[in-house]
Amino acid sequence: METQPGAFNGTPAAAAAGLGLDLPGALANRSAALSEHQQYVIGLFLSCVYTAVLFPIGFVGNLLILVVNIRFREKMTVPDLYFINLAAADLVLVADSLIEVFNLDEQYYDMAALCTFMALFLQVNMYSSVFFLTWMSFDRYLALAQALRCGPLRTKPRARLSCGLIWMASVSATLVPFTAVHLQHGEEACFCFADVREVQWLEVTLGFVVPFAIIGLCYSLIVRVLVTAHKHRGLRPRRHKALRMILAVVLVFFVCWLPENVFLSVHLLQRAPPGAGPCQQSLRHAHPLAGHVVNLAAFSNSCLNPLVYSFLGETFRDKLRLYLQQTASVSALSRFGHAALKAVVPDSTEASDGKVGSAV
């Protein structure tokens, strides 16, 4: 995820006239242009909406997935292990999103070292979240379409091994390119890991195109299995819910990550203007508001994953209901004990006071 935005400078119409471009193009640029203050206000408004609506859903939702599944770890299944790891990656991304979404004055990334550190941190968790979504799609296909053949392979030890390998792959997909590009660009004054074109190509390919293709393929095969079952035995209510959940999974992933990757792809397909310095070649330097919007969209995926993957699932809802009932019972018992203690302590105090008074 590219993380070094900058200010929007210059007047588009004047630049167009200076380059001898046609008048309609200049007018289009003029109508599309916003002042720096307007961009700041719009970005602040979107950040406030994200913080007030999506951030609580993502933070509380992912935290509940961790707490509830750990509370009932004796009932944990193979998908639950993937849910926990996905929730851990998403929780870190959601927590870090507060730093990103209010980075409106671009002060956080004036230092190249801070820009690189934040980019590394975000990419590890971004890759882990996307990789877990992809692997969970493949696991769902195996569980539904290849249950007899692959059922013995879907064990908890193998699931733990898969989770460890996914985390290793996420770290490797970030640190290996970082090491390579740092040796090549490390001495540049404005070097930021997120602005290297090779890293951006890798992010678009490995972080979106390949995962989306695998997710789409797995769920298309699952839909085919469900439709075939419907033709032979009729579509059961649970299978009908599964189809709705599949549609939600694909749509949420595609809608949230598409803007970010289109934004990067446009930048990658454009050539840097002649004479542009290394610090002014980022697309976010030219379009900070657009960069801010695509960042919010990408973070929204981690906020919506708990709703799609767990709260729409009957198993987690049952665990959550039981957890809330137990928590309410413990709270009621605690309140009863506290009230009983308050009822007993004053009596004891009064009795002791009476004894002291009689002795006096």
Q: In total, how many beta strands?
A: 0
By CATH reckoning, the class would read Mainly Alpha
Q: Which structural class best describes the helix and strand composition? A: mainly alpha
Low-confidence stretches: 2-32, 347-352, 354-360
What can you tell me about this protein's structure?
The protein is mostly helical. The protein has one domain: Rhodopsin 7-helix transmembrane proteins (Rhopdopsin 7-helix transmembrane proteins, Up-down Bundle), CATH 1.20.1070. It is 80% helix and 0% strand. The chain is built from 12 helices and no strands. It has helices at 12-18, 23-32, 36-71, 78-101, 112-145, 147-150, 156-185, 197-233, 237-269, 283-286, 288-311, 314-359. Helix 3 crosses helix 12 (314-359). The radius of gyration is 27 Å and the shape is globular. The chain starts with 11 loop residues before the first helix and ends with a helix. The relative contact order is 0.13.
Secondary-structure blueprint:
Blueprint: H1 12-18, H2 23-32, H3 36-71, H4 78-101, H5 112-145, H6 147-150, H7 156-185, H8 197-233, H9 237-269, H10 283-286, H11 288-311, H12 314-359
Main attributes?
0% strand, 360 residues, Rhopdopsin 7-helix transmembrane proteins, disordered C terminus, disordered N terminus, mainly alpha
Put the structure in a nutshell.
The relative contact order is 0.13.
